[in-house]
Automatic annotation (TrEMBL), chain A:
Protein family per UniProt: Belongs to the short-chain dehydrogenases/reductases (SDR) family.
Signal peptide: none
Gene: fabG_2
Organism: Cellulomonas pakistanensis
NCBIfam families hit by this protein: PRK08261.1 (NF006110)
GO molecular function, one term: oxidoreductase activity, acting on the CH-OH group of donors, NAD or NADP as acceptor
Protein name: 3-oxoacyl-ACP reductase
């Protein structure tokens, strides 16, 4: 892979000084997960009034009577000179846009001293047309404010939110799970996102370091790039991994399977019996199948004006038709019923569109529609289907872009850099985890708050 | 006259069955091709890596890994053990090298199966590897002796005397030869005698070669090798495979063996196996071991027989030993050719297959030489080498046995499942026959599980 030389230059020695003086964009080295590292690197400020704020503060600090909590150094007031690693804004009680002033203006001075790689996370409730206009306005206001704050942050800090449905308590597993994910280094390249939690389903893991212990996960396209990172990350989180890729990628696939102590399955996902063969392998070898990650994907870029049928059809076949067929096989098997998880790779192209990618965007838009419609089919088993939409990720594919285009693409996000395959993998691992059970039919963007799309 | 040795009793029933669980090989490459700079150790390790990945054997302590190579560097004295140490298998997995010319791979399968049946091991990997590209080059005998004498010499005059014994001709390196040491003839020249002796036509040989390519290509297209082969060094399929070959194209090739015989030469580069690089592995286990790991037994290794012929004095053709091994094996198991659903006869040359079949169909030969009371019989061509064999896949000597056993075990298991689905519950069996240099031949019977 190309490697981001510019990022290296603005972060070291003399060139860093020059970049600062010239006012050039200065992307930071992002805080990423390391085993044994603390969840956050310093005190956490919990802002907001009311019961939910107190409950969250108690949970984070480990003083809650019902939950074990995370033993963080939690403060309820922004003391002078304290350098906070994270700020949680409990905004579930806002009823009028006026109510935003108090917590946000309290946040204002804290932002100036936020630690590098810091976190701002809002916890709010979803607006809807059947609410009083002032209430809906206040709740939707959180969305606009958070996205703007995220754009204001520097030095690898990110701003994200968790948006609860009205009947979901703040102690629901997915609320705490999402909050922990967004506070942690695992969400390094997730920025400016508001993740809805629509149900209280899910379960807190016995061990937060290995939430997928005892689970069997299938990852397609696992031989290299993002798929390899997903296989590695799921295995790190405790899952037994079945690594799937086309037979021609078998050598790299075997290396991945051996590294993650899983099994390799050489399979073309577009084969009619792909779903059956995946099930047979997972059940036969590992006794179960819990997580299906649809990562295999191809691009055959052309302007629609120059599009050929084979370019269009092959992209649809691999990127969406294969996923639909495999999901159907899993859903009708009767063996995918223990809080199953489907996580599918979408793309910012599928959200905002991309010139020359009408076929790819159709397939990735299709993925979004698919997970939204598949999630309800899994709800009865405590299952979920969600998508992850990567933005600019440093892979072999993006390394082939023209150099200038690549440099520009990297800077077109709040974090002013491309993400790494592991950043996408972390998001997939979160959605695959038991604690994410209340996140259903959503698209989680991993794009560093790309300027493209929402 | 070769008398049939008295058959030992069939293995006691009640002993654990040794089953083939699966296999893995790298695509076979033509000598000087993509694996030209790859060692036997690299290839065997790669085949083992793929097997471990397919079956999730990381950190597993297997009973034994047995493999070998025909063309071997002296530094590879512990080739198989080194491959195990370089693989994700537990370093506590024992291993040893075995070599029986082209029968190495099949003999490795038989060795492990026997240990499993005796209860000495629960699991094992049989394998083989050969490189016709990365072959050892030795110094000449003269130079070797001089160097050894020099190393023993203690005084300057002794050293000078030893060095003086060196002749310019001694500086020529010695490349390995696959010619028969006792006759100086290549395997092809030997087989040309046998081909002429049995009157095997060029057309019949080309048809065998054509079928081999057609069937191997069809098997690849059908995804048959998706769980048998792991690509290596950019090679995804066997390099020697010519899916587009035809009888016309094969018919145009010039004969390369038997050109100095009185009869017309019929053996070409198309109906003879090319020099090949590659490696294969087969996972064997007791049924209990396989079940405990969620692995599906494909076929049991029922029995095996090795024969040898006196080719030196011209009594039999160099590659005709399987002709003797198979009837003895079938007799011991109380089976006839008609009881076999599949017959795999290694295609060293197309004519090897044809002379073997001709001998079994020849009543006079079967009576006088095999000690039978009638011709052994005819092999249905539809059951012969159904997914192609060495003419299309290539033949890295020691790797061929593993290739055949893994493929035929999968074929047997599939066939049995099909029959069961159709309500037919009967044994499904295959015969595997591999000829080898030195007048050797190994045959084995596998039965679907």
């Amino acid at each position: 892979m190309g490697g981001d030389t510019y990022l290296d230059l603005v972060n070291s020695g003399f060139t860093a000084k020059v970049a600062k003086q010239l006012g050039l964009p200065r992307p930071a080295r992002l805080r990423r997960y390391r085993a044994g590292a603390p969840l956050v690197d310093g005190p956490v400020l919990v802002l907001g009034e009311g019961g939910d704020a107190d409950t969250l503060a108690q949970f984070l600090s480990g003083t809650s009577p019902e939950h074990k909590g995370w033993d963080l150094d939690v403060r309820r007031h922004a003391g002078e000179g304290t350098r906070f690693a994270a700020v949680v804004l409990a905004l579930t009680d806002v009823a009028h846009p006026r109510d935003l002033a108090e917590p946000l203006l309290t946040l204002a001075p804290v932002l100036r001293t936020l630690a590098p790689g810091g976190r701002v996370v809002t916890v709010s409730r979803a607006p809807s047309p059947d609410q009083a206009p002032a209430l809906a306005a206040a709740r939707q206001g959180v969305d606009g404010a958070l996205r703007s704050i995220a754009k204001e942050l520097r030095a690898g800090a990110t701003g994200n939110g968790v948006v609860l449905a009205d009947d979901v308590p703040v102690t629901a597993p997915a609320v705490l799970g999402a909050l922990r994910f967004l506070l942690s280094a695992r969400s390094a390249y997730v920025d400016g996102q508001l993740l809805p939690v629509d149900s209280a389903a899910g379960a807190l893991p016995a061990d937060w370091e290995r939430p997928l212990e005892g689970r069997v996960a299938v990852v397609t396209g696992a031989a290299r790039g993002i798929g390899e990172a997903i296989a590695t990350t799921l295995a790190r989180d405790g899952a037994t991994v079945v690594a799937v890729d086309v037979p021609a990628a078998g050598e790299a696939l075997a290396a991945v399977a051996n590294r993650v102590r899983g099994t390799a399955l050489q399979l073309d996902v577009t084969a009619d019996d792909a779903g059956g063969r995946i099930l047979e392998h997972a059940l036969g070898r590992h006794g179960r199948l819990d997580v299906m990650v649809h990562n295999a994907g191809i691009t055959r870029d052309k302007l629609l004006a120059n599009m050929t049928p084979d370019r269009w059809e092959s992209v649809i076949a691999v990127n969406i038709a294969a996923q639909l067929r495999i999901n159907e096989a899993l859903l009708t098997s009767g063996d995918f019923t223990d809080a199953p998880r489907i996580v599918s790779l979408a793309s910012t192209s599928g959200i905002a569109g991309n010139r020359g990618q009408s076929n790819y965007a159709a397939s990735k838009g299709g993925v979004i529609g698919m997970v939204q419609a598949t999630a309800p089919l899994l709800a009865a088993f405590g299952g979920t289907a969600n998508a992850v939409a990567p933005g600019f990720i440093e892979t072999e594919m993006t390394a082939r872009m023209p150099a200038v285009t690549r440099q520009v693409a990297r800077r077109l996000s709040s974090l002013q850099q491309g993400g790494l395959p592991v950043d996408v993998a972390e998001a997939v691992a979160f959605l695959a985890s038991p604690q994410a059970g209340g996140v259903v039919g959503q698209v989680l963007r991993v794009c560093g708050q790309s300027m493209v799309g929402r | 006259m070769a008398a049939t040795p008295s058959s030992p009793p069939a293995p006691t029933t009640g002993a654990p069955r040794a089953v083939v669980v699966g296999g893995n090989r790298i695509p076979f490459a033509r000598a000087g091709g993509p694996y030209a700079r790859v060692s036997n150790l690299d290839m065997l390790t790669a085949a083992l890596d793929g097997l471990v990945a397919r079956f999730g054997l990381q950190d597993e302590v297997l009973g034994e890994v047995v493999a070998g190579a025909v063309l071997k560097h002296s530094r590879d004295f512990n080739l198989t053990r080194e491959a195990v140490l370089g693989s994700p298998l537990s370093a506590r997995t024992p291993a040893y090298d075995l070599q029986q010319a082209c029968a190495t791979g099949l003999e490795a399968v038989v060795s492990i199966a026997n240990k499993i049946r005796l209860g000495q091991v629960e699991s094992g990997v049989a394998g083989g590897v050969d490189s016709a590209s990365d072959v050892p080059i030795a110094v000449s005998e003269g130079l070797r002796r001089t160097l050894l004498t020099l190393s023993r010499a203690r005084t300057v005059p002794q050293r000078l005397k030893a060095a003086a014994a060196l002749r310019p001709g001694d500086l020529k390196p010695a490349t390995p030869r696959t010619d028969e040491p006792r006759t100086g003839l290549s395997m092809g020249e030997h087989q040309a005698f046998t081909t002429a002796q049995w009157g095997i036509s060029r057309q019949a040989q080309d048809e065998i070669a054509f079928a081999s390519h057609q069937r191997l290509a069809a098997a690849y297209e059908a995804g048959f090798f998706d769980d048998l082969v792991t690509p290596y060094r950019g090679l995804v399929r066997d390099q020697n495979l010519r899916a587009d070959t035809s009888l016309e194209k094969l018919g145009k090739l010039k004969p390369v063996f038997g050109t100095r015989l009185d009869t017309p030469a019929t053996m070409t580069a198309g109906n003879s196996t090319p020099l090949t690089d590659g490696a294969s592995t087969v996972l064997l286990a007791s049924e209990g071991w396989a079940q405990a790991r969620g692995l599906t037994p494909l076929a049991a290794v029922v029995d095996a027989e090795t024969a040898a012929v006196d080719f030196v004095h011209g009594e039999d053709g160099l590659l005709m030993a399987p002709v003797y091994a198979v009837p003895r094996l079938l007799a011991r198991q109380g089976l006839g050719l008609g009881d076999l659903d599949y017959v795999e006869i290694h295609e060293a040359f197309a004519s090897t297959v044809l002379t073997t079949l001709a001998a079994w169909e020849d009543k006079e030969f079967c009576l006088s030489r095999l000690g039978l009371d009638d011709a052994l019989g005819t092999v249905d061509r539809e059951r012969l080498n159904v997914h192609g064999s060495s003419l299309a896949a290539g033949h890295p000597f020691a790797a061929t046995g593993g290739r055949i056993v893994a493929s035929v075990a999968k074929t047997l298991h599939r066939r049995r499942a099909e029959l069961l689905a159709a309500g037919e519950d009967r044994p499904v069996r295959a015969l595997v026959s591999v000829c080898a240099a030195g007048g050797l031949g190994v045959a084995a019977i596998l039965e679907a599980v």
